[in-house]
UniProtKB/TrEMBL annotation:
Residues 60-398, 499-724 form the ABC transporter domain. SUPFAM superfamilies: P-loop containing nucleoside triphosphate hydrolases (SSF52540). GO terms for molecular function: ATP binding; ATP hydrolysis activity. This is ABC transporter domain-containing protein. Residues 221-271 form a coiled coil. It comes from Penicillium chermesinum.
Amino acid sequence: MTSAPTILATCKQTRFHLLDDAPSSEVRTGQGTHSGWIVILTFAKIDVEGLSITVTSKPLDPDDASKPKGKGKSKVMLSGQELITDGHLRLKGGIHYGLLGRNGTGKSTLLRAMAEKLIPGIPHATRVAILQQTQDDSEGSYGLSLEKTVLDAVLSSDTTRNEMVKTANFLSKAFEDNDPLGPVRAIRKVKHEQAQKRLFLADKNANLKSGARGLVARKDLKAAELNLESMQRLLEQDLEAVDAETIQADTQEAVEELHNLQSRLEDMKLADVEKEARRVLAGLGFKEDSLGKKVSTLSGGWRMRCMLASVLVQVPDVMILDEPTNFLDLLGVVWLETYLKLLRESSETTVLLVSHDRDFINAVCEEIVILRDQKLNYFRGNLAAYEQDFEEQRLYLSRMKEAQERQKVHMEASIRENMKVGKRTGDENKLRQAKSRQKRVEDRVGLQVGANGSRFKLSRDMPGYHFTSRPEIEVPVEERGATMRLPDPTELRFPGPLVSLEGITFQYKKTERIILDNVNLTVHMGDRVGIMGLNGSGKSTLIGVLTGNLSSPKGKVTTHSRLKTGYYSQHSVEELQDLGRSQAGLTALGLLMAETGSSLGEGEVRALLSSMGLAGRTVSDVPVAKLSGGQLVRLALARIVWNAPQLLILDEITTHLDYHTVTALATALSSFEGALLVVSHDRFLVRSVVEGKRDMEHKLDEEFEGLEEEETEPSKSRRRSVYVVKAGKLNEQANGVDQFEQSLVKRVQKMLSA
């Protein structure tokens, strides 16, 4: 069994660092005796410079960090995959950030390192709540208690509040008993537990620091060890032999601690927390009668919704959401958008989220953090503004570079001519003029604008005597997902609809509700059909009837005699993951070779995988079990298109993709000559692929074929329809996605105002 990867995080800390460096990392105010402090957690910002994060399969040896470093060897060389090098993590209080980056760049690892306080510059007192993409089914640091009900699991997710309730109840029970020494035993036990926590934090702090700070941290660790030993002796002391003055002092300390905890719990208003939990669960799709169900009875998708609710009801300093829309229908997405907007207005909680849903990021985020080339860059504005600014900057710099290249060629030609004439005629003026122009080429060619936006000045913008020229103009490379190309569909030989549903009525049991009620749908070659609807509305049942996996007792299903269908299920990635776990050595190349049989040779299979964005050693050397979610989506696509189908049915295909790859996928689908039936909650995908619209806020690749191309080339005209499944009916939306979205916005407004 392989061990879980270890995250190693280091950063640069200066003596003027703004973050609290104490192991307890608490901001304290007020007065009290002994441990009777009133603790107020405040969060202004996270500002960590020189951040480096490495993932290694080798477990971290605590002794390595505590060993004194020799001169010139203060930097520990870490083996493993380096994800971030000398980055700057900067988050301001109350701001909502969107974290962007290609699949595999380390977004989820960075979020996990923040949540687990593995980054030394993040104070231990910073309260972080996280929703991760993958959760362990067992109860863990971020997991839910499987044996609790949905409501209880959400209410018990705030560990800080739970600890306060537990301690308050423990002290209160000690006073209720008739034993006069009960409060003394209780407060000593509480102080012993606090000493254990301080020792844990001090030990962690000492392992993360070196040099002068490491020396101070190890002194703090020694003090914490002595404090725990002292608390242990007090806990084991025979209270019968303790003097009355000490008993009275400890009892008074227990009274003050209990009063302090009760005051803080009253401020939290636990009744309001339950009301908020019910409201959040309802917004995420939970019915009132399902709140009493055990978490263990829920499917994976509903467990993730429950986990999302448990994060939202907390009041953390930093809320981390990694793909929160993955298991939500469009109603849930719109509700979450609205909820986070209201949170931004009413709370100082900092939100850092990752999502492939462009519209969601654009609506929620105020600033963008870009993880690229192992660095963190920042942009003040939403995703649409960032894309527009990036394109304008790229265009400006490319034009500047082209103009300077032309100028440089002209000046170098003039220099050569002056040198030639000067040497031939012995004209010193010509030679001096040539040298002067050569120096001008060396000094003046480069970036024309300084860091502050003003015109570049060598003496001001190039610090240090050893700098004699301007930096070269570097045109930023557009961050695109791996290009994807779909094979042309097989010819049908004779015309006709690919698939036709007539009067389809379906219910799983006669005593249950009707799922599909007199549904009619016809799909021809080249059609673009979008299917939307809430979870449980019948979309999956409709797909089952279309693919032949379900048979309808009423109605008629007709398919073209030569039809080939490629079906991407919303569980396709999970199926590949299960396959990879059952066959450890299975690769993408081996899987496709086995499934295509003698139809395709190895070269053709490699070409097919390459057209999906999987190439080189990835397809032949990396096991399927080690592929990322985005790579598995590409492999699943290759599995359904290798035989050139005329109809592609895609059910929630964007779930495991980053937003760059979603753009590449939209471009590939737009030029597909066959028919597309897309089931998705992703508004951008349906709007672009099905409706053929070039969203003004989101730039598409130049190869995208939509309504504009159809207007210039009538031969490319297609039927484009968006349907919503509701109450068993298939309703066409005259205004497409926008019509459905607006109906949900009104519904969410009523839910939040209730």
